[in-house]
Amino acid sequence: MLIVDSQVHIWAADTLERPWPPIKDPTQSRAHRPEPITKDDMLREMAAAGVDRAVIAPPVWEGVRNDIALAAARAHPDKFAVMGRVDLNNPASRDLLLALAKRPNISVKASCMPLYTADAYPYRRLHPWLRRVYDAFGPQRMFWGSDLSRLECSYRESVTMFTEEMPWLSAADLDWIMGRGLCAWIGWKV
Predict the structure, then answer these.
(1) Could you give the CA distance from residue 39 to residue 2 in angstroms, rounded to a whole number?
(2) Residues of the chain where predicted confidence (pLDDT) is lower than 70
(3) What range does the domain containing 91 cover?
(4) For residues 81 and 94, what is the distance between their CA atoms, to the nearest angstrom?
């Protein structure tokens, strides 16, 4: 099965030559890890977890720049793409997201899910919410993602939460959710 992660972050260090903007909003986060995750780090993690491709979401702590993500995608177009994001920390945005499912040109990524529960792996409290998203968007417009740098579980567990722990997802559904749908959406040849 093709496995494509719909959200990972890579970034460069906060240096004098490449400074990050100051934090103006106390709810804004800094880097998820003390050391940057480079494209080479991500390629090693992907190989070890059996992940074939990943979409890079440029992290907020670097400001509006996306040069690191774009450089990685240019260097490895068979492994990386770059995509924007919608802020789902706002409950109104979550409700809006389900309403937007009626529009065929809108898709959703189910990324960094373990962060949204105090539940332990396999995070069963999340399964009904994921089912609602699945029912609204369908498997061809719902993309799995890890947000690796923020995970509180292993990269592999973020994969198996979907592939082994949600029996209501068929093999065909998983094929779409775990990679085929995202590749079709952004024009990545399979």
Answers:
(1) 20
(2) 24-29, 64, 84-90, 93
(3) 4-12+31-186
(4) 24
